[in-house]
Amino acid sequence: MVAHYLEFERPIADLEIKIEELSKLADTTGSTELEAEIQALRARAVGLRTEAYSKLDAWQKTQVARHPERPHFVDYCAGLIDEFVELRGDRKYGDDQAIMGGLGRFRGQAVVVMGHEKGRDTVTRVKHNFGYGRPEGYRKAVRLLELAERFHLPVISFVDTPAAYPGVGSEERGVAEAIARATEKCLMLDVPMVAVVTGEGGSGGALGIACGNRVLILEHAIYSVIPPEGANSILWRGSRTAEEAAKAMKISAQDLIKMKIVDRIVPEPPGGAHSAPDVAIQVVGDAVEEELEMLSKLSVAKLKKQRADRFYAIGRSGLQ
Fold first, then answer.
1. Is residue 320 very low, low, confident or very high in pLDDT (cuts 50, 70, 90)?
2. pLDDT digits (tens, 9 = 90+) for 186-215
3. HEC letters along the chain
4. Which domain holds residue 96?
5. Quick check: is 113 in a domain?
6. Which of 24, 46, 240, 309 has a 20 to 30 A CA-CA distance from 279?
């Protein structure tokens, strides 16, 4: 598979191309003299990647959050959920594959799991509508949340969407109402819920399945009321750039935790989650396990109060 490099990774890309060329030459000639040089270049590439990812700005983090090789919902499900049984349909209109979910076991514990899925190639991206949820997806989420309550199962959600789908059909079928119902259900849930922003947490499309007791975010993920391109278009009428908007909006994990919009930053491997997806998935699993263990000790009343206190507190600092 051809590696996908972002613009700020060009020096790393050039170095890795040189490493590949030298490796092929060494294999062809059978020479061992090149091995020391190859190892030195690999060490330098690791150093460059670590340095680059240690000082990303908001726009660069947006690019990383959208990286096509980052782990998606299906990857987290495969890596963390045993005996997964997907449940489809909203029992009203149809099935939306932009939001997937079902039942399974997370490290031995029965759970309800759901999340956005963007797809990996042209066929799957079309199938999953590039992660843009339709009203059926949010009504399916409500159905899954109700199932979790009925069987007293904790909920894990993986958030990764640019936004909810704004098409005519989606609007006609009540996407705003569907998101509102899903948000309400998350907030009033009788069981523990942990939400993880794994890539893009965009607008109400993200919020609809993100209102958990604990909201985690990956180190290079973003969470925003609107994508930077939309903010530039609406607020500045396109007179500036998405890069400027991203920096102004405070959408990075590091900014969000200062404002207490998220509760915990989950570290990514050097070079981002896409550089070592299996490692990233297990680190996320460890964080979710810790949060669920803490929440499992709370009564239903305390779970609801903790969730209410958490969301009522957002934006209130400095108002007293």
1. very low
2. 999 999 999 999 999 988 999 999 999 999
3. CCCCCCHHHHHHHHHHHHHHHHHHHHHHHCCCCCHHHHHHHHHHHHHHHHHHHCCCCHHHHHHHHCCCCCCCHHHHHHHHEEEEEECCCCCCCCCCCCEEEEEEEECCEEEEEEEECCCCCHHHHHHCHHHCCCHHHHHHHHHHHHHHHHCCCCEEEEEEECCCCCCHHHHHCCHHHHHHHHHHHHHCCCCCEEEEEEEEEEHHHHHCCCCCCEEEEECCCEEECCCHHHHHHHHCCCCCCHHHHHHHHCCEHHHHHHCCCCCEEECCCCCCHHHCHHHHHHHHHHHHHHHHHHHCCCCHHHHHHHHHHHHHHCCCCCCC
4. 62-313
5. yes
6. 24
Domain boundary pick from 19, 35, 54: 54
Cα–chain-centroid distance for residue 304? 24
Residue 87 sits in the same domain as residue 200? yes
pLDDT, tens digit, for every residue of 227-237?
899 899 998 98
Residue 318 belongs to a domain: no
State how many domains the chain has: 2
pLDDT value, residue 155: 98
Which residues neighbour 123 within 8 Å (Cβ) at sequence distance 6 or greater? Answer: none
pLDDT tens readout for residues 233-252: 998 988 899 999 999 999 99
